[in-house]
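Severity: low
Component: inverse-folding endpoint
Summary: output formatting inconsistent between runs
Steps to reproduce: submit the following structure tokens with default settings.
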């Protein structure tokens, strides 16, 4: 004798029971993975565009320096002892000038 559960699972309803979970997984994936990465990329682009000569920065490698030159894709930064290093703009992780001023202001 065939069980009614097996017959019900083999019915025409299987298309919806497959597509709906896949669509829900894609929606969750978008909101938890893709959207935050796009926002982070926009914020980084805005940070790099706002930097100029004289700003202090920290690179992704942890090198602290001051911007002394710039072109389309790179920054020339001066580190301790007057050494100058050229870094790609995408390697900047923090604007230390703004971070220092926000840390120095007392909260009321």
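Observed output (run 2 of 3):
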């Amino acid at each position: 004798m065939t069980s009614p559960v097996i017959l019900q699972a083999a019915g025409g309803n299987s298309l919806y029971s497959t597509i709906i979970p896949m669509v829900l997984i894609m929606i969750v994936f978008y909101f938890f993975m893709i959207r935050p990465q796009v926002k982070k990329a926009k914020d980084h682009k805005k940070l790099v565009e706002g930097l100029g000569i004289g700003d202090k920065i920290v690179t992704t490698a942890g090198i602290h320096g001051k911007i002394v030159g710039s072109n389309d894709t790179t920054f020339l930064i001066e580190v301790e002892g007057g050494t100058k290093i050229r870094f790609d703009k995408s390697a900047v992780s923090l604007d230390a000038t703004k971070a220092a001023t926000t840390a120095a202001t007392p909260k009321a």
